[in-house]
Amino acid sequence: MFMTLCLDIRKKLANFTLDLSLVCPAGSLTAIVGPSGAGKSTLIRIISGLERPDHGTVSLDGVLWNDTCNNLCIPPQDRGVGLVFQEYTLFPHLTVRKNVAFAAVDKDCVQELLVRFGVDHIAERRPAGISGGERQRVAFCQALARKPALLLLDEPFSALDVATRTNLRGELKKIKEILNIPVIHVTHDLEEAFYLADDICVVEEGRLAPQWLERQKNLRAVQLSQ
Ligand SMILES: Nc1ncnc2c1ncn2[C@@H]1O[C@H](COP(=O)(O)OP(=O)(O)OP(=O)(O)O)[C@@H](O)[C@H]1O
């Protein structure tokens, strides 16, 4: 059975209701694009368990994380999610190596991740002593050290210079194949979405744009028949 993220949620926001159904299979990257304020980050927070939907379900591999009918909400720490945000979220008092080791399920993977993301040479420095691009590389190491069942990326490259961004995109594309878990990637950059994504969902005022909705329905039908 392939690990698949399925969600069907509603949540009332300030100016509209977020109303989304989405299927993201293992090994595939779904890019979420759309105008500012469309509800993309709220969606990420709901999937990660940082926010609750008003109605609906979120499940991974058939295991329910949210089910509002049964008042079920699995806390974020029990969802096995790897998160990378636009702003890096490293502990300032820990070295790069310790930041990654802190998150690691298996300490043996730490050095391998540091090498893969090209930050092994700065492993003994603290976040304040490295560049923004390097910090974001470490954030990826940290997220993957958790051996996540799902990777959630909220504009992870938007604060980076073009060269670092291009390099990290390439790394993400390779890693996506190896990890074989669902990846949800919020971005404003359409070129990035076309380069990385297996599926692109356009969200406008909390809803999927119609042409993508049809594709998601077909994907769901295939998943249910497996
Ligand atoms: N908990 C909440 N309750 C009510 N409204 C909210 C809540 N969280 C966010 N909003 C509103 O919902 C809308 C969507 O916000 P969100 O941050 O998800 O958008 P976004 O698509 O990620 O935007 P951006 O691309 O600018 O980051 C915004 O208008 C925001 O003000």
TrEMBL record:
<dbReference type="InterPro" id="IPR050093">
    <property type="entry name" value="ABC_SmlMolc_Importer"/>
</dbReference>
<dbReference type="GO" id="GO:0016887">
    <property type="term" value="F:ATP hydrolysis activity"/>
</dbReference>
<dbReference type="Pfam" id="PF00005">
    <property type="entry name" value="ABC_tran"/>
</dbReference>
<dbReference type="InterPro" id="IPR003593">
    <property type="entry name" value="AAA+_ATPase"/>
</dbReference>
<protein>
    <submittedName>
        <fullName>Probable molybdenum ABC-transporter, ATP-binding protein</fullName>
    </submittedName>
</protein>
<dbReference type="InterPro" id="IPR027417">
    <property type="entry name" value="P-loop_NTPase"/>
</dbReference>
<dbReference type="InterPro" id="IPR003439">
    <property type="entry name" value="ABC_transporter-like_ATP-bd"/>
</dbReference>
<keyword id="KW-0067">ATP-binding</keyword>
<feature type="domain" description="ABC transporter">
    <location>
        <begin position="2"/>
        <end position="225"/>
    </location>
</feature>
<keyword id="KW-0547">Nucleotide-binding</keyword>
<dbReference type="InterPro" id="IPR017871">
    <property type="entry name" value="ABC_transporter-like_CS"/>
</dbReference>
<dbReference type="GO" id="GO:0005524">
    <property type="term" value="F:ATP binding"/>
</dbReference>
<keyword id="KW-0813">Transport</keyword>
